[in-house]
Design brief:
Layout: E1 8-13, H1 15-18, H2 27-42, E2 46-51, H3 54-61, H4 71-94, E3 100-105, H5 108-111, H6 113-128, E4 132-137, H7 151-162, E5 166-171, E6 177-183, E7 187-189, E8 192-193, H8 198-204, H9 216-228, E9 232-237, H10 243-248, E10 255-257, H11 266-273, E11 277-283, H12 285-294, E12 303-308, E13 315-319, E14 325-330, H13 335-341, H14 349-353, E15 367-369
Length: 371
């Protein structure tokens, strides 16, 4: 695959791009988006569309004047809108001879390893059969505890799961702006990001719009997932003429987040991003150096503090004593046990707890650094 010809593309489009000035679904904009995606399919690319808009579609059919605020009303609107939205996409893709397939996911589908693999296999099979998966969060059943929160994260997780080459986030802004440069009102567009540090996070600020539920911070978090998974990501104005073709061709559009050359393998991607973090372990400088440089497991001796009430098997953040997070991993012991054995040698665990199932608090195979 050449640099300018990605073979597998995930495109995410938000509610703000799919709605008109009156807040209603813009059917002409949706038709133009499908036209662009079909054109990429004709060039040999495999396309996955992650789309918002189900709640908005349901609101229109149910004559809701304002966006519902409580969960039952949101789920009711989504239940009505999902079918309407898929019907619209199916008809539009049919015109180009492409079969659309609905895939509804929740955070739990990525947290559980078996369900994650099933979802990945389904998406890969659909692509191999020439279909275009239309992915959305399953708002009809998702609760706050199992929601992605916005589709930027969902799109990044999908892109990472299927090993996409390119992730495009179509938004109502042209990209990431550096407000320290350019005009006081608009700042200066950042054309390329190779590393997400504190400066990039600071630029994100908070840019939530009335139609969508995400924002630039959510997009930066999506970029972290994509880049570490070997996926290049671009944020661009979704209303731009032939914006998908321009990005796929490598033209300078929006803000491009360059894929990390040292990308994680498939299992490590799941370890790093599949499950929500349930707590944190703080380690001393010696343990930090061994984990980062030596690729070793995390032992109780290197742990200085514990945060949260996690259980064995939960994902936790790994931070140094300055509270800088540098890794994640699945713990062998719960928070109560780790609090008892922190700072102690592995040989003392059985004496302290009355049992010892593992020498390591986190085994190196269940740990990822640099996230």
């Amino acid at each position: 695959m050449s640099k300018n010809k990605p073979a597998r593309i995930v495109v995410k489009v938000g509610s703000s791009t799919l709605t008109d000035a009156a807040g209603r679904l813009d059917k002409s904009a949706i038709a133009d988006l499908v036209r662009q995606l079909a054109a990429q399919c004709e060039k040999g690319a495999q396309i996955v569309l992650v789309t918002s808009g189900a709640i908005r579609a349901g609101m229109e059919r149910l004559n809701m004047e304002s966006r519902p605020r409580n969960m039952p009303e949101k789920q009711a609107a989504a239940a009505v809108g999902q079918g309407l939205l898929l019907h619209m996409y199916t008809e539009l893709f049919d015109r180009s001879g492409i079969t659309a397939a609905q895939v509804l996911l929740t955070r739990d589908d990525f947290s559980d390893r078996s369900r994650y693999l099933n979802a990945r296999n389904t998406l890969n099979t659909l692509l191999s059969l020439g279909a275009a998966p239309i992915v959305n969060e399953n708002d009809t059943v998702a609760t706050e505890e199992i929601k992605f929160g916005e589709n930027d994260t969902l799109a990044a997780m999908v892109a990472a799961a299927i090993g996409a080459d390119l992730l495009i986030l179509l938004s109502d802004v042209e990209g990431l702006y550096d407000m320290r440069r350019g005009s006081p009102k608009h700042g200066q567009l950042v054309p390329e990001v190779k590393h997400i540090g504190r400066d990039i996070v600071a630029m994100a600020g908070g840019t939530d719009g009335p139609a969508g539920s995400g924002g630039m911070r959510a997009k930066i978090e999506a970029a972290k997932i994509a880049m570490r998974s070997g996926v290049t990501m671009v944020i661009a104005d979704g209303r731009g003429r032939d914006v998908v073709a321009d990005i796929a061709a490598g033209r300078a559009v929006g803000t491009r987040f360059v894929a990390d050359a040292r990308s994680l393998n498939s299992r490590k991607r799941w370890v790093a991003f599949g499950a929500p973090v349930r707590g944190a372990l703080f380690v001393n400088a010696g343990a930090r150096d061994v984990l980062l440089e030596g690729g070793k497991s995390l032992l109780a001796a290197g742990i200085v503090d514990v945060q949260g009430n996690f259980k064995p098997g939960d994902l936790v953040a790994i931070s140094d004593e300055s509270k800088m997070c540098f890794g994640r991993g699945f713990v062998n012991y719960g928070a109560a046990e780790v609090r008892q054995i922190k700072g102690r040698r592995s040989g003392e665990i059985e004496q302290i707890l009355g049992y010892k199932d593992f020498d390591e608090v986190i085994h190196r195979d269940n740990m990822v650094m640099g996230v």
